[in-house]
Amino acid sequence: MKQLMQGNTAAARGIYEAGCCVASSYPGTPSTEITEEAAKYDEIYCEWAPNEKVAMETAFGASLAGRRSFCGMKHVGLNVAADPLFTVSYTGINAGMVICVADDAGMHSSQNEQDSRHYAKSAKLPMLEPSDSQEALEFFRRAYDLSEEYDSPVIVKMCTRIAHSQSIVETGERQEVPAKPYEKNIAKYVMMPGNAIRRHPVVEERMRRLQALAESIDINRIDEGSSNAVGIITSSTCYQYVKEACGDRFPVLKLGMIWPMPDEKIKAFAGSVERLVVVEELDPFIEEHCLTLGLKVEGKSLFPLEGELSQNIIAERLMLNVPEGLKLEEKIPARPPMMCSGCPHRGIFYTLNKNKCTVLGDIGCYTLGAVAPLSAMEMTLCMGASVSATHGFNKAGGKNAVAVIGDSTFMHSGMTGLANIAYNQSNSVVIILDNSITGMTGHQQNPTTGYNIKGDPAGKIDLEALCRAMGFSRVRVVDPYNLKECDDALKEELSSGEPSVIIARRPCALLKYVKHNPPLKIDTAKCVGCKSCMRIGCPSLSMKEGKAHVDETLCVGCGVCTQMCRFGAFQEGR
Amino acid sequence: MKTTNIMIVGVGGQGSVLASKLLGHLLITQGYDVKVSEVHGMSQRGGSVVTYVRYGDKVYSPVIDKGQADFIVSFELLEAARNIEYLKPEGQIVTSTQQIDPMPVLTGAMNYPEGLLAKMQSLGVKADALDCLKLAEQAGSSKAVNLVLLGRLSHYFNDIEPEAWQEAIRFCVPPKFLDLNVKAFELGKNA
Prior knowledge:
The complex is a heterodimer of chains A (574) and B (191). With 574 residues, chain A is α/β, with parallel strands linked by helices. Helices cover 35% and strands 17% of the residues of chain A.
């Protein structure tokens, strides 16, 4: 049956059809839905791992035990999992193992726009790159056969536009793959020097065989063009932009397998056209490979290194017609994302700002604490960096620093930083924003929530007990809706002269089980229009005719604004 | 057939996901190649959201670029204006007249621009504007703005049978909200 399917849903379908039995991932935009969708198939055991490294090692263990396995992550997640990645390339696999990495050119929801194709080259692993949902399904399914045939994990690289676009897909049936028996093989699976030295030539030989495959595999194909004035090499979503901009005008070498590359095919293609152009987002990965082949090629001299490409950019740089857009002479106010009404993070950031703390932050919804008017976060680097960087900041004599990290991010990479504080003794204050969910990626469970990916009861890590076990004697829990309690706790812990953890606990206001209060009302006789309440940056609040105004469709009655008002102008709703 | 481009714009949480799902399903049943593209994550937290719906004999790019949209379907006036450079000069805007203040307006740093509709029309574009929120509430829920907008949009698709729209609504809406959504669609269509 033909249906419209998101790239990530199609990827999950491909995994399912390939007979995958175990999937372990950490959520990360734009990769999250693959594992969420895979979890809807009862035949696949799916889980959220605490981080990508754990997910990849779990998938490797499942492969070792003889079952086809999967792990998925965003580009920066692959940095976390890079350690097992480079060595699982040496051990190879038992049953097929497929790794998905989803890049985010344009940084729709990321802290950088690194190009993951470099990982395939440096870890010496094959990488496939689909260009729509149908290819996502097929490439994921085929990746398992390649994995087993070449005794190698296979990386399938997605990007935001493939992951989150829907296109027409025809599905197939699931192939039941019997478990491969596990066989003890110390020389293959124990990567100590003596064994690894023998495995490295195996890896190089595998890459030579894969390169031969790249020459013949049907997913590296040429679309004929009517003029050979230009020949384009491209892959992924850029292929679609090229076809949109150029139609069948120029021949296109579309690479479905982006690593290793088909050298002979590329050379023959280059020889058949007058001008060779590579169209790729981010780094000149294909272009530089063409240069190593001694080819005259244009790429980044035409196209930017930053951001996403589009049909218009390609048309413009290839001197084709570009449609004119309309121009409105008007200053349009930006509409940036912001913390939701009733977000439990708001009160903490107001308190931190009020106390003039240097807040070293982390990755999650609460990164929005950096946005005006709260403007209360001064550093965000990567998962877990808040905790470790605060320790370093304090060791260097920094003052009044506080780490702020969410519950899921703390489980991902905050714990090791906390261990460093406990071990190397800095008087650091760490605030764990425990909203009982992984918020930013769309409400995934994590090891502190007590539920698994299917919403069934699961193990639950006790944050207070964990911090105490690490050696923190000062661990306290506050309600982030209570500004005075937060303010008192922060002042006490900053002056305590000991390392401490404050857990600000209240579930995300968007969770279905969270009961909301009726929207608040303004007593306009009492409101003096001082705008104190506007300092918390709540989307429910605005000034109308000099008085505070509550948007009743948004307000959840959290009462943080009530505590800002010295005139008692906020009244409980009914 | 040449590819037709529909941009759905609004504010995170306004219901554009259902609108694009419904359009996608409808256009597939008409035998077209279809691509629907949206961005998840950071952009959803009350920020501007954009969804692209493209259909025709063969659709390549999942996104609509500047000067290519045949329609802008807008849940909010400012968002229509923000994306006007994506519209073809002869394109059609179908918009709700609702105004939602973004943070720079809430904090008083900027004003919500006045007379946006007239300013857009002065560029020569055709704009079909109606109070979709009021019609949605009339249908039974302020959340049904998406169906009011689609009802209005259906005016411009004479080649698609009314029954096909109804079938798409039934396919995409849970049964207990079906009557409400059908009513919202009809109110938009007949407004």
